[in-house]
Amino acid sequence: TMMEFYEAYANYHTLMDFTEGLIRQAAREALGKEVFQYQGRELDLSKPFHRLTITQAIQREQPSFSDAQLADAEFLKAKIVAFGEKVKPGGLGSLQLQLFEACAEAQCWEPTFIIDYPVEVSPLARASDTNPEITERFELFIVGREIANGFSELNDAEDQAARFQEQMKAKDAGDEEAMYYDADFIRALEYGLPPTGGCGIGIDRLIMLLTDSPAIRDVILFPSMRPE
Q1: What is the pTM of this model?
Q2: HSE-up of residue 220 (Cα within 13 Å, Cβ side)
Q3: Which of 6, 37, 141, 168 shows the smallest number of beta carbons within 10 Å?
């Protein structure tokens, strides 16, 4: 179950602030407090949520990894394998994300916004004005799980068309998560979209937190069942 919300003339900083406040308020309304136990461990939503880039989050868990090493594709591939994962097709940005998922994501127990995702893995997000290789995108992790994903929307039709072309190349190269070209969406952007920020929150995972449920099937009315 997903809840999405958008705001015109807002950016990803605005959406992070709003999302943080929304989740904190949800805990207050449901539990009457911002500090509570989840699966026997304290979770504190009262403090400002952490904000880290992908590489900063990796280095928090692996302080020996240098900036230069995290910009080296071969180093990233070797470490992804060392952490027991298979290397998926992709460029430097994709490899950095894969290493984050392998060694750091599960350690984000305290609420943590991972920010400034690479363009390569963020086809719908607006590129940064200061660094065209990254985007104005965030994902929120709590207790090692992704809770929300948001970004400043890409509202340039030509840029979006070029991104879709790159996504199609990635899909042809074996990237199963890459997107198809969406001509209708490009046509809509050509009519115009104001600067906009958007975010989606995984309601089921949020309910898991607030009800101290260990599995998502415990909070879904009709969970998928294994064949008998």
Answers
A1: 0.91
A2: 13
A3: 37
